[in-house]
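Sequence only, no structure available. Ideas?
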Amino acid sequence: MKNKVLMGLAAIAMVAFLSSCGKVPQAKVDATNAAIAAAQTAEAAVYVPAEFTAVQDSMNAINAAIEVQKSKLFKKFGPIEVKLDATLAAANKVASDAAAKKDEVKKEVETTMTAVKATVVENEALMKKAPRGKEGAAVLEAMKTDMAAINATIAEAQAAYDKGTYMDALNKIKAASEKANGINTELKDAIAKVHGKTATKAVATKPAATKPAATKPAATKPAAAPKKK
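Reply:
I predicted one. Tokens follow.
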């Protein structure tokens, strides 16, 4: 009887020991969650969305695995700790990549903004040279409306840039750039066609050059023979 009691106590002690060994690696969980929060603050969801989603999915899977192990009598958190280490490293990389991408987008906005403003100025000058026939006047009026919309979009992009929402600014300035470049091409083509027609007409109406009449050299009389003495 005594031996059975001792064996029972030993079994309980072993279970308690094994259970105590399988503790949730809370420190690593907290560190990984903090790294994911830092990535979110760095706007990883905006600048590297796919990578950030992958990290979140990984952490969600880890949390689910932890809950499964917590429900078991004999818990094994070793494999989960390995996954936590990998997810922590991935979260730190995502935060770094997001910061780098944000800076890249910021520079692209600045470059595109400068180019678009130059194109707008050029378009305004080209509109003064564009043909103004019956159809041309209507086209130019439509272009003026488009140009006003482009300037409004540029202003919106500038406001987004000033707020630090660079991805939004980039999307807006790219849209403005596409429209401004389209107008630029249309104006140049119209002007080139008019100049081409003018040059062709000038060549067609130019009178043929007439050669001056050839003049015969004056006839020279032979010298008179000397008189005989």
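The longest helix spans residues 78-129.
Hope that gets you unstuck.
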